Amino acid sequence: MTRKDEGIGRILIEEAEIREAVREIAAFLDAETTGRTPLLVGVLTGAVTFMSDLMRAMENHVEIDFMAVSSYGDDTTSSGVVRILKDLNKDIAGRHVVVVEDIVDSGLTLQYLLDHLARREPARITVVALLRKNKPDAVDVQVDRTGFDIPDEFVVGYGLDYAGRYRNVPYIGVLDPSAIREWV
C-alpha cells in the first residue's frame, strides 16, 4: 500500500475497468457527434482525470471548457446548496455541449448545471458520467451514458477526492470511515 492509498477501505473499480469504460463512452460520443466538433465541458475538479482520458480516446475533434460547481465542500454528503465557482469561457449558443461529470450523486448539482446551461441555448446537451450512485431519493436527471452504477458509498480516486486527497489514485475506492474521522 502506498501513501496515496492510505484510508481506502476497498477497491470498488479497478484501473483496467475504468479504461474500458472510458473507451466505450468515447465511442458513444464519437457516434453522437460525427461531423461536429462538440464542446466538452468538464465539471471541476473531479472530472479532470476522466475528461482528459475521454478526449484522448475520442476520434472526433473536440473543444474543451470547464465549470466549477460545488455542493460538497470538505464533507462526504452534499449540502444541497449549489454554487458556480467558475463559469464557461466559451459561448455555447448553437453548439453541441457534452457535460463530463465524474459522479452523479443526488442529481441536484447536475440538474442545476443543466438548467443553467440550457438558458444559453445550445443546440444539444449530452451528459456523460463515469459514476452514478444508486440512490432511491436521487433526482431523475439527464445522463446519456454512464460508466458504472455504484452503491451509495463515499468513493475516491481517479479524480474524486475527500478534503483534497486521493485524486491521484488510479482506481475508484471506498473511503474507510476511520479516514474521515482523521481529517475532520
Quick description:
With 184 residues, the chain is α/β, with parallel strands linked by helices. 25% of the residues lie in helices and 30% in strands.
Write up this protein.
- α1 (15-32) crosses α2 (48-57).
- The chain has 4 helices and 9 strands.
- β2, α2 and β3 form a beta-alpha-beta unit.
- The strands form 2 sheets. The protein has a 6-stranded mixed β-sheet, with helices on both faces. It has a 3-stranded antiparallel β-sheet with strand order 1-9-8.
- The radius of gyration is 16 Å and the shape is globular.
- The longest helix has 18 residues, at 15-32.
- It is α/β, with parallel strands linked by helices and 184 residues long.
- The model has no long low-confidence stretch (mean pLDDT 90).
Question: What is the topological layout?
Answer:
Blueprint: E1 8-13, H1 15-32, E2 39-44, H2 48-57, E3 63-70, E4 83-86, E5 96-104, H3 108-118, E6 124-133, E7 145-150, E8 155-156, E9 172-175, H4 177-183
Parallel strand pairs: 2-3, 2-5, 5-6, 6-7
Antiparallel strand pairs: 1-9, 3-4, 8-9
